[in-house]
User: What shape does this take?
Amino acid sequence: MEKKINVTEVNSAFWDGLFPAGCLVTSIYPKFSIISANDEMAGMMGYKDANEVKEASAGSMLNFVYPDDRERIMREGAERNGCFDVYEIDYRIMCKGGRYRWVRQRSRHILTEDGNELIIATYMDITEKKETAYLFKALTDNLPGGIFSYLDNDTGEFLYINANFYRILGYTAEEFRAKFHNSFNELIYEEDRERVLREIKEQIEVSAYDKCEYRIQKKDGSLMWVSDAGHRTVDADGNPCFYVVVIDITESQLLSDALNEARLANSAKNQFLSRMSHDVRTPMNAIIGLTALALDEPDVSCSVQDDLEKIANSSQYLLSLINDILDVSRIESGKMELHPVKYLFAEFKQTIFTVAETLTKQKDIEFVFRPGTTELAVMVDKLRFNQIFINLLSNAIKFTPQGGKVEIAVKNNYVDNNNLKCDFVVRDNGIGMSGDFMKIMYEPFTQADETGNINNSSGLGLTIVRSLVDMMGGSIRFESAPGKGTTVFLSLSMPVAKDQEPVKTDEYCADNEFSLKGKTVMVAEDNPLNMEIIRRLLEKKGIIIMYEAINGQEAVDAFRAAPEGSINAVFMDIRMPIMNGLEAASAIRKMDRKDAASVPIIALTANAYEEDRQKSLNAGMNEHLTKPLDPALLYSVLEKCIYN
Assistant: This one.
């Protein structure tokens, strides 16, 4: 039986600060009137407090509901009358000024002491999620050809089918699902089914992609030949699935059109990945940034600190997974490019020590670096070069038990025809790998777990390492056995950089720390939560934020109005309204004042591709930092830019 409550206790003061979401209490009778609302709910709707929300509702919560959704909401409330289970429903509500936003309402019904039934609900703003979903649907539904996804299971249950695929075959959505029992397997014409399923299985065993041709029966009874290009991945819930593009190849004269359709589909996929990368990194910046700030609070209890550290570790793993998936996608699409720059061996050594120190301390593992004798600077893509060794080092530490040992050695380095040839050895005394796993270790999403324990690994690290080594013209091989540890032999030939300067590399020395206290910056960022995070991170170092701009035009105007030399650095988001960050940086550089050409401009953005970084540099920015922000890197880059 439901516990009855005192309705006078259910007021805005009761809810404020309790949940990081909007909260409402409404009665069922009469007319879903609002009893209380918390400040989060008022703010989400654009009102200053609960009283203003109640007044605007004119006696009923239904007056806020989008007209097309109202009947569904009333029906849901009536059906739940007398039922006290928690339920969810999505709909649109009108905010102050007449704009509608999508919300997810999570509710349950309760009884008051006098027997009246109330609805207690929390509200989450899901407008951006809905708009992204609509954008994806509009994009895929209007592409030529068919696009669909299905689960990788015994039946191949369909998850999504674009509207054009139904049109091509002549079915409505209901007719299609009834005809083929919502199964990809049954979609394939019976005479082709066994062959096609076998081909897909064989191709997926060696790659994440498959391509095959088969027939489908259209509504008019005719058979249509299609070319199927599939990609095996996981859906949002972690279930293995396929994303597929199919084109009609029934008529040979349509082959050229089919190629164009495939290019369009591939372009749509890349656009989708780029958008998803940006949209995922934005909330990840809030999670990682706020967690880091919370961990720095002085009076955090041990239990809360433990929870925060788990959140931080999980967030970093999720971020690395996102990065790995994007890297593999670009490698497989042939869009991964190397951008060689001058790289000092001392920088490389410092990077290795920094990564190793952080990881080995957590497991009390001994780390040894034998740098050899080379002091030459080489021309390599620093990001990708480091990525190879960080992946190998991370794997070695991950699969080495507490008290073990990990070693990196540089051997046989010599110059031949202006190329530095080096052999690198990464060795550990960890759990090792089986011979069977070593046969498939470069395949995407392949994991080895000799201990039976779950490990935080995407199964993409070695795929990326092998691809990058190949792109650099090097070679890599592994020696390993269960319980005997693993040794990696990596050989690279790298062009020697011109204008060599002697660099002492005998001992590792950390960079000198420069004070940032009292330095003045301007921040251009349109997301309020991101602005709060960067503000708090900067204030921790005593940095003064002179100007906060919410778009590129405001940033340009603020810099133009600021006294010359008064701003030590500018932090610039890229995707902003009115004027984006690239345009704003370019406009600042073109100003007729002495500091316009020299003031450091640092991109802080969720645009994480290499071409995004290059666009920032081309626009006149000094550095390109991607969200989620790494506080240590942020401070280091700012020191470098100011004290260079």
Q: What stands out?
A: The radius of gyration is 29 Å. The chain has a mean pLDDT of 82.
